[in-house]
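Tokens as discussed.
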């Protein structure tokens, strides 16, 4: 197990790793259509975070990025085309991360939570809008703060 995630089982770690892809499915599909630019940008962001971002999460994102470009299309292909059904599945999968995030050290949980919200915002901005202004649709806006996740606030000891 990678540093800072030792408190998780292999199954929990895999769910957390796939959480990034489920966030991409949720946000990219929120407006009813998963745009290829959103999928491409989500893959790029996952890869970038393997070398840029909080040092404590570099190894995690290295793991995520190792197969994200294949995992995300697989998830998309294996979820219903129906917007409501796909959204419900993605929301449930992301909600399952709450007890897993709570098991992490507080600082790591807080970094992960904020990283997930940041990732959702970047994916939402990937398409639409006029010269990238108003690029977050009303449907995406409902989900970019990931209301199904319990916010984790860093508490200094």
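Sequence:
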């Amino acid at each position: 197990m990678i540093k800072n995630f030792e408190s998780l089982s292999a199954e929990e770690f895999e769910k957390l790793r796939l959480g990034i892809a489920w966030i991409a499915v949720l946000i990219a599909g929120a407006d009813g259509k998963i745009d290829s630019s959103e999928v491409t940008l989500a893959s790029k962001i996952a890869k970038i975070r393997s070398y840029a971002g909080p040092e404590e999460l570099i190894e995690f994102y290295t793991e995520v990025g190792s197969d994200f470009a294949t995992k995300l299309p697989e998830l998309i292909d294996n979820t219903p085309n129906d917007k409501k059904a796909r959204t419900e599945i993605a929301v449930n999968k992301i909600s399952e991360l709450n007890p897993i995030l709570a098991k992490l050290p507080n600082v790591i949980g807080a970094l992960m939570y904020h990283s997930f919200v940041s990732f959702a915002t970047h994916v939402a901005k990937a398409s639409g809008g006029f010269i990238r202004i108003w690029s977050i649709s009303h449907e995406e806006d409902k989900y970019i703060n990931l209301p199904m996740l319990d916010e984790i606030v860093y508490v200094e000891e």
